[in-house]
Amino acid sequence: MSLQCQLCWANIDDLSVPERQRHYDAHLEESERNPYPQANSSSSTTSKNLRSWLSKGKLRNPMTANVEKSQDVFWYPAMHTPPPKNFIPGLIPVLKKALLQSHAKGTTIRAVLCYEGAVYISRQMWDASWGCGYRNFLMSCAALMDQPYQPMYFPLLDQPISPGVRNLQAWIEEAWNSGFDIEGRVQLKRLVDTNKWIGTSDICAAFLSRGIPAELVDFEVKDPKKGLTPLTNWIVQYFNKYNKHNSGSTINTALLGASPVQGTPCMPLIVQDNKHSRLVIGYEMTKIGAVSLLVFDPSKLPSKHLRSVALNTSTNSFSVRSQGSDNKRRESISQTDDMNKPIKVNHANSEDNGSDAAWTDGDDNEIEFVEERMQNRSGDIEMKSEVQKVTEKGTKNTNKIDKDISVNEPSYRDVLKHFRWDTRLLQRTHKYQILYFPLDEPLSKSEMKRRKILTSEQIT
Question: Does the pLDDT value for residue 174 go beyond 90?
Answer without folding.
Answer: yes
